């Protein structure tokens, strides 16, 4: 059993993860082998997601300290792993969805993303969310689209005006 000072250090670590993350996913890893857990951790690392296993009581203490995670308290039972992510909020959901499709485990329990609660039935919705880069690309495309249309329109109109002036000038010469 960890000593009180060790527990406090772990709670501080969890608190730091919570403060530095915009999303926390809770998964139940019961009956997963060590090899499966290693593979899952590897998949999370590839997606730039911090995946940790902590005692539920210590996670709850950290969540109480930070605030805003009350919706996750009922899920802090059984063997849980916690995925923490900063910017790519859908990354854990994409990893979990693919991994669960192949292995039927772990069980996605819930998530809090930017203060919003998502339950286990919403994993597909979370996985379908666009990444930050995709959203920025969409916004840039939308912003550039009207400018491109205006420039094209002006060029087309300019071409028509120049053509009309040239035609009038040619008729005047005859």
What does this structure look like?
The protein has 6 helices and 5 strands; from the N terminus they run αβαβαβαββαα. Helix 1 packs across helix 3. The protein has 2 domains: 4-129, 2-Layer Sandwich (Alpha-Beta Plaits), CATH 3.30.70; 130-174. A hairpin with a 2-residue loop joins strand 4 and strand 5 (116-119). It is elongated and about 100 Å long. It has a 5-stranded antiparallel sheet with strand order 2-3-1-4-5, with helices on both faces. The protein has 174 residues and is of the alpha+beta class.
Structure characteristics:
2 domains; alpha+beta; Alpha-Beta Plaits; elongated; 16% strand; five-stranded antiparallel β-sheet; 174 residues; 6 helices
Task: Give a brief description.
This protein is of the alpha+beta class.
Largest sheet: 5 strands, antiparallel
Which superfamily, in CATH terms, is the homologous superfamily of the largest domain? Ribosomal protein L10, N-terminal RNA-binding domain
The structure class reads alpha+beta
Question: Approximately how much helix is present in the residues?
Answer: 55-70%
Please report the number of helical segments. Answer: 6
Order of helices and strands: HEHEHEHEEHH
Strand content: 15-25%
Number of domains: 2
Shape: elongated
The CATH top-level class label of the largest domain: Alpha Beta
What's the CATH architecture of the largest domain?
2-Layer Sandwich
Low-confidence stretches: none
Write out the strand line-up for the largest beta sheet, numbering strands in chain order: 2-3-1-4-5
Mean pLDDT: 85
CATH topology of the largest domain: Alpha-Beta Plaits
Q: Give the N-terminus to C-terminus distance in angstroms.
A: 104 Å
Determine Rg (CA atoms, Å). 27 Å
Count of extended strands: 5
């Amino acid at each position: 059993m960890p000593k009180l000072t060790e527990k406090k250090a772990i709670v501080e670590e969890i608190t730091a993860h919570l403060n530095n993350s915009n999303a926390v996913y809770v998964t139940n890893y019961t009956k997963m082998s060590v090899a499966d857990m290693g593979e899952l951790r590897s998949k999370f690392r590839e997606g730039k997601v911090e995946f940790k296993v902590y005692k539920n009581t210590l996670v709850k203490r950290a969540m109480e300290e930070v605030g805003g995670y009350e919706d996750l308290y009922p899920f802090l039972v059984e063997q849980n792993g916690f995925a923490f992510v900063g910017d790519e909020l859908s990354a854990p959901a994409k990893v979990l969805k693919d991994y669960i499709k192949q292995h039927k485990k772990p069980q996605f329990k819930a998530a809090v993303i930017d203060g919003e609660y998502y339950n286990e039935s919403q994993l597909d919705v979370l996985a379908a969310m666009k990444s930050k880069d995709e959203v920025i690309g969409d916004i840039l495309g939308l912003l550039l689209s009207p400018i491109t249309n205006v420039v094209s329109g002006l060029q087309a109109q300019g071409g028509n005006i120049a053509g009309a002036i040239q035609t009038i000038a040619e008729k005047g010469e005859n």
